[in-house]
C-alpha cells in the first residue's frame, strides 16, 4: 500500500498543454476516481503516475519517494487496461503467473498466489482455459488477477469496464469494490461512467482541460459543487441552471420568478441559480418558483423526466417518481426547498458561505 503525491505535474504533447499543473495527494488505501469530459487528460494523468509517460514538469512521489524519472517497473504499481492485454496463447493460470515467473519466484509461491487471486476473483474453474474461451467479464477478472498477484503498492485502472455490457459492468464493479475492501490497497481509476465514479470512489477528481475542477467525496461533489462545471458534470440528468440577480440584503431575484431570501449565500454577486431535476416538484401557482409548459415527457420506469419550457424559452428538466400524470402542453408550477438551491457568480464559482 502506498500514498501517491503529484506536485505541480504538467504534461505537454508538442505545443498542447494536456496537464496544466496538478497538485493531488492520494492517501494510502484511498480509492480515487478521475472523471471528466473526453480529452480532459484523465488517461494521461494515470499514465504519468504509471511511468508510461514522462512529466514535462513537476514531481511524482510514491510513499514519499521521488519516482518522477523512475521507469514503470520500479514504481511498484499494477495497471489494468480497458483492452485486458492478456496473452492469447497462454492459459488463465499462466497469464496470472507470468509476471511472477519473470521475477524468478519459486513454483510453490506462485501457485499459492495464483490460487488465492483466482479464489478472490472466482476464476478457480477457468484456470486451464485460454482467454478466447472466456467472456469479457472473465477476461477482465484475469487481467485484475494478474495485477493482484504482483502485490502492488497501488492499482491503476484505465476504464477497465468499458468493453463490458451493462449487466457485466455492474457485476465487475461490485467485484472491484469488494477487492478494494479486502486488500485495502490504494486504487486510482479512470472512467467515463458516473455510476462507477459515485459508487467506487472515496474521492472523485473532476478534471477539465488538464486542471482539477474539484476533488472531493461523491457526496460533497453532488451536494456542494464548487462551480457550474462540476454542478453540471456530476448528476444525470444534469443540474438546471437559471439566470438570477442578487443584492447585498441576501436576496436572490430569479429571472421570470420570485425573490428568495438566501442567507446561506453571498448573494450580492449572484448570477445563476442551480436546482437538480429531482429537487424540483410540482406545486400550486401561489408557491411556485418557476413555471412553464411541458414539451416532452420521458418515462424511465422508476421515474419520469418532464422537459419544461419556461416563458423566456429556456428549458428545465424535472424528475418525478414513477409515471407522471401530466401531459405535453400542460402548464406546470414548480418549487424546490431552499436547501437544495445552488448559487453561482458570473465566473461560475459557488457563492455558498
Ligand atoms: N501521445 C500523445 N500525443 C499527442 N497528444 C496526445 C497523446 N496522448 C494524448 N494526447 C492528447 O491529450 C489530450 C488528453 O488525452 P487523454 O487520453 O488523457 O484524455 P482522456 O480524458 O483520457 O480522454 P478520453 O476520455 O477520451 O479517453 C487529448 O487531447 C489527446 O488527444
UniProtKB/TrEMBL annotation:
GO terms for molecular function: ATP binding. Pfam families: ABC_tran (PF00005), TOBE_2 (PF08402). The keyword Ubl conjugation does not apply. SMART domains: AAA. The keyword ATP-binding applies. CDD domains: ABC_MalK_N. Residues 4-234 form the ABC transporter domain. InterPro entries: AAA+_ATPase, ABC_transporter-like_ATP-bd, ABC_transporter-like_CS, ABC_transpr_MalK-like, ABC_transpr_MalK/UgpC-like, Mo/tungstate-bd_C_term_dom, NA-bd_OB-fold, P-loop_NTPase. Keywords: ATP-binding, Cell membrane, Membrane, Nucleotide-binding, Transport. Gene3D superfamilies: 2.40.50.100, Nucleic acid-binding proteins, P-loop containing nucleotide triphosphate hydrolases. SUPFAM superfamilies: MOP-like (SSF50331), P-loop containing nucleoside triphosphate hydrolases (SSF52540). NCBIfam families: PRK11650.1. PANTHER family: MALTODEXTRIN IMPORT ATP-BINDING PROTEIN MSMX, MALTOSE_MALTODEXTRIN IMPORT ATP-BINDING PROTEIN MALK. This is ABC transporter ATP-binding protein. It comes from Verminephrobacter aporrectodeae subsp. tuberculatae.
